[in-house]
Amino acid sequence: MIDLSVIIVNWNAKEYLLQCLETIYQTDEVPSREIIVIDNGSQDGSEAEVRKRFPRCKMISNKKNLGFAKATNQGLKESRGRYLLLLNPDTMVKRGAFERFILFMGSRPEAGIAGAQLLNPDGSKQNSIANFPSLATELLNKSLLRLLFPERFPGKGQDYSEPIEVDSVIGAAMMVRREAFEQAGGLDEDYFLFLEETDWCYRMKKAGWKVYHVPQVEICHFQGKSAETRKERAKIEYFRSRYQFFGKHRGRFESRILLAGLMIKLLAELLSLLVGSLVTLFMVRKLRRKLWICLYLLWWHLRLCPEGMGLKEVR
C-alpha cells in the first residue's frame, strides 16, 4: 500500500487542472503516491492534454458528466493509498501541504477526515469549514451566525493556530483515512454536485470518526470555475442537494419548513432585484443576471424540481 492517493474530478477546467497537476508534481515530499484524474466528459481537451503532459497520472474517462460523487467513487475504488486526498482541479498545492496533512492524520488516529485552509489567489482566507445544514444555517444569515456564535459556527473570520474538530469541511481539499472510507463507504451518488462531502462527514461522525480543520495545511482555491459558466444550473444543483440532505437526515417536517423558507427568500430576492432593475432601467448587467437566475430557480420550483434543468444530463 502506498502513502497517498490524490483524486481529482475534472469537468471542463483544463487550464486549472494542468496548473494543479504542475504544482502537485513540484511537491516531492511524499514519494509514495499516485494521482488519479477522473474526467467527467469534458469537451475542452482536458483528457488528451493530461495524457500528453502528465503520463504518470491514472486517467479514468467518462463519456458524460456523471456528477462529482459518482466520479469520485470511481477514483476511490481505483486508489491504493493509506490516505485519500480529494482535490479540486481549480486548486494550487503549496509546498509541504501533503506532508502536513499526512503528519496530522498520523498523529490523530481518531480522525476520519481532515480539511485544509483554503485561500484565495491573493492569499486571503476562504471559508473552509461547514456546519451540517439545519434550518438556522439555510434560512438565516450565515455570516451573522458566525459573528454571534463563533464556537458553534466557526468560519474564516477566526484565526486558528491549532487543528479544531468541526462538523464538516469543504471538499475542495480534504484528506480521508482509508479505514474510515472502508467503514462508512463512499460518497452518496444521489448527490450530483454540492453537499456530498458534508453528507460524507455526517456519516463518518455517525460511524465514530472525527472531522478536523487543519489550518497549517494551505491550498489555493480558485473556487467554482467548472460550474460558473452555467451558474443558474449550478444553483439548481445546490438547492437540490440541500433538499436531499434534509430529506435524508432531517425528516419530512423540517424538509417542508426548508422548502417554504427558501421559497419565501427567493420571492423576496426577486422583488428586490425587480426594484433594482427598474430603478436602473435594466442597464446594470449584474442585476439582470441575478434576476434571470432568480426567475430560473423559481420556475424550477414551480415545475416541481425536474432533473433536466440542472447540470445533470438527462436522457
Précis, in short:
The protein is built from eleven helices and eleven strands.
Question: Can you walk through the features of this model?
Answer:
There is one protein chain. It is built from 11 helices and 11 strands. The chain is of the alpha/beta class. It folds into 2 domains: 2-221, Spore Coat Polysaccharide Biosynthesis Protein SpsA, Chain A (Alpha-Beta Complex), CATH 3.90.550.10; 228-309, no CATH class. Strands 1, 2, 3, 4, 5, 6, 8, 10 and 11 form a 9-stranded mixed sheet that branches. Helix 1 links the parallel strand 1 (2-10) and strand 2 (33-40). Helix 1 (14-25) runs parallel beside helix 2, helix 9 packs across helix 11 and helix 10 packs antiparallel against helix 11. The N and C termini lie far apart (40 Å).
Give the terminus-to-terminus CA distance.
Answer: 40 Å
* H/E element sequence: EHEHEHEEHEEHHEEEHHEHHH
- Helices, by number, come to 11
Uncertain residue ranges:
none
Q: What CATH architecture of the largest domain would you give?
A: Alpha-Beta Complex
Helix proportion range? 40-55%
Shape: globular
- Largest beta-sheet characterization: 9 strands, mixed
Task: Give the C-level CATH assignment of the largest domain.
Answer: Alpha Beta
How many beta-strand segments? 11
Structural class by SSE content: alpha/beta
- Would you tell me the overall average pLDDT? 94
Q: What is the CATH topology of the largest domain?
A: Spore Coat Polysaccharide Biosynthesis Protein SpsA, Chain A
Q: Any idea what the radius of gyration is?
A: 20 Å
Please tell me the total number of domains: 2
